[in-house]
Amino acid sequence: MAPFFQVRAKLGPVIPDNSIPMLQLLSPDGTYGVPKEYAKYGEIIDSISEDTLLAMYRDMARIRRFDIEAIALQRQGQLGLWVPAIGQEGAQIGSGYGVGPNDHIFPSYREHGVALTHGVELMSILKMMRGVNHGGWNPEETRFHLYAIVLASQVLHAVGYAMGVKFDGKVGTGNLEEDLAVISYFGDGATAEGDISESLLFAAVNKAPIVFFIQNNQWAISSRVDTQTTVPLYTRGEGFGVPGLRIDGNDVLANYAATKYHMDQAREGAGPVLLEALTYRIGAHTTSDDPSKYRDEEEVEYWKARDPIQRFETFLRRQGINDDFFDEVKIAGDALAADIREQTFALGIPPLENIFNHVYSEEHPEIDRQKAWLKAYEEKMGSHE
Amino acid sequence: MSIAKFPLPDVGEGLTEAEIVSWKVAVGDQVSVNQTICEIETAKSIVELPCPFAGEVVELFAKEGDTVEVGNPIIAVRVVGASPIPVLSEPDAPATGDEKDTGAEYKIPTLVGYGDSGDVKSRRSRAVAAMAPVTTAIPVSMVRAAAASESIMAKPPIRKMAKELGVDLGSVVGTGMHGEITREDVIGSASQASVFKNLTTPDAPSEREERIPVKGVRKAIATAMVRSAFTAPHVSIFVDVDATRTMEYVKRLKNSVDFAGIKVTPLLIMAKAMIWAARRNKMVNSTWTDEEIIVHNFVNLGIAAATPRGLIVPNIKDADAMSMIELAQAIEQLAATAREGKTTQEDMSNGTITITNIGVFGVDTGTPILNPGEVGIVALGSIRKKPWVVDDEIVVRQVTTIGATFDHRVVDGDVASRFVQDVASVIEEPALLLD
User: In this structure, are A98 and A216 located in the same domain?
Assistant: First the structure.
């Protein structure tokens, strides 16, 4: 029987339409330039110190090395699952740096880079993927909320939070100690969910202080973005009254400038905005996925040539940053990898009872029954150790 | 120095096994942390496995092409110093040999998922025989075929019609868009089926006699029968058996999710029983050549098929290596090919033992004649309710007769009896297949 997907395979590689206007400050070959119409974003870059630029690079390299080690740990049976973000470091680190000190972040489940920029212990993410905890960081401290596994649910939470901020009168008062805005991350796949439409509408009519940040990595697991939308995603909010902007997601400076500018605007009371960062997930959707089954090598090559870290390195070298810095970053990355490897192995295997322990706060006969069943099943199968 | 073992991890949320596609290291090689050691294929994808520790490879526990259960070790590495990583489990059995070793052996703890393998036997074997990592290799293509057959495309009215006509949609080749089964496909299939069911009695012909030329399949049948009957001294054995449990088992399999869309019949259990019994009584699965007896350690299982053009005996190659699902599909495929008249010479050669299902014709039993070149054939009679004595009481059970014929030059009476008894005991208690 002919499977349906053969029909779709004829669509060819997923390569975006480059004629659509897009904020890009660093071209793929690492050349910096500010087009006239984007001057306000260029001004933000003008005020960045060299230390901040180097810190951004360090975090991008750090999170990629972390990601590679996490994939290996999953393949060695040490994580139940891993969700790679390789290729999306420009969008994540850049936007993460653009979020202010009071602002709140509502992530999906691939935002390891954003988490890093807001003080989340990277081991916490690994613990979650091992089933040791449910995240484990305190969103009140980091202002980076827990990962949302249910697609698009976090965007509703984010809008609700932003509406609450407005009700509390912490928008546009001019008091920089108190005012805050909210940013929510989601992917191209989530935009097809009703939750996103509801979120856009509620944010618009309440003029909530929120930035919707889409990382359009072209694929919703195995569904191409062009099968989920007929218009560029940054225009998705227009009918609801939410203006949008497309950003080159692999240009860390564009992501930083756009996020900083629009978070500042939202905090000052300008209402919601939708940013679409055009990027690409170089790896698999998760370690359970095999992307070679649904996408062309040609397409992956196109995006590898637009790698965010390589691009930024070229730029920094032209600014006079030399091997000493890049060598140091590499050594630090390997040390991080060795460290998380050791810590992960030391975590132990979470006890099975944990599955049941936090379902209800009180005793529950059905949960007890299931717990007893699983225990008996385990004993029958013998130990895994 | 200690030995660290790497158990096959669950790389894809709930997988229970994987096939080793290729090894990238060999015994004696030095490996480093995260160096690719092998490529595995799971039900989801092909992935590379990185080594969790550095040292010298001392053993590979599975060969390329082997299917390994999640949790069983695939590689052992001699690591320098103590355990390379915190080890939470108790050390395994003490190391043997090398006295420079500390004697400690470690298996790193890994997370293991709970996929629904549906195969109780292999799951249980983990506890019983943790050191026997390799289960029978199942070709991935067959597994995929099983999955594919579950997605039958037919509209509800067509499904209803198929049900009414007694047509198994799993055996129908769809000619519609994307392989959808059409009304015509079902009707075509139904008329084909009625040929074998012989439900309609033809009118008496007006001629007093009809002359059918002896040619083609009929001639081949005759030649084979004569050759067989006059070269091999036949000995036949019969045994009555209570097949109630087999019928229940067939019913359960039919209702199980794993067998959705797959045709399950008593013949399938019979085939499995024969393969099992042939492994226990190897002489029945051999060939006589005057100079030597060739004992086959594989089973190319012949299945006698009635076709519009006569009897043919195609065989299922390496049926002993197949799972129940694969075997069911192979039988179905064999029958469909035979019906369509597309059975090739290759399909019919190199059989090692044969089964003939005369029960479908409503016959209790018969004396089967050996397929030339083989020394054993078993006939499965009809299965029907009969009085049966259980604990000195007469009860109604589903009873059948197993008839078998052997080449007496090769198979002695005791072997023949044991073999038939083995087949019968499986029919009586299919749980023996889990042995």
Answer: yes
pLDDT (tens digit per residue) in B170-209: 888 888 888 889 888 888 787 665 444 444 445 666 666 6
Which CATH number covers residue A339?
3.40.50.970
Expressed as residue numbers, the domain containing A356 is: 352-385
Provide ipTM, 2 decimals: 0.82
Domain count, chain A: 2
CA-CA distance, B368 to B378, in Å (whole number)? 7
A217 CB burial (10 A radius; 0-12, 13-18, 19+): buried
Q: What is the pTM of this model?
A: 0.60
- Within this chain, do residues A164 and A238 fall inside the same structural domain, yes or no? yes
List residues of B whose CB lies inside 8 A of any A CB.
6-13, 33-34, 44-50, 52, 71, 85-86, 88-90, 107-113, 123-124, 126-128, 130, 148, 151, 153, 174, 178-179
* Residues A246, A383 within the same domain: no
Asked whether residue A338 falls in the same domain as residue A370, the answer is: no
The strand pairing partners of B237, in sequence order, are: B404
A57 and A328 Cβ atoms separated by less than 8 Å: no
Q: Are the CB atoms for B11 and B31 separated by under 8 Å? A: no
Do A114 and A101 reside in the same domain of the chain?
yes
User: What are A89-116's pLDDT values in tens digits?
Assistant: 999 999 999 999 999 999 999 999 999 9
Alpha-carbon dihedral sign for residues A69, A70, A75, A79: positive
Q: Are residues A281 and A373 in the same domain?
A: no
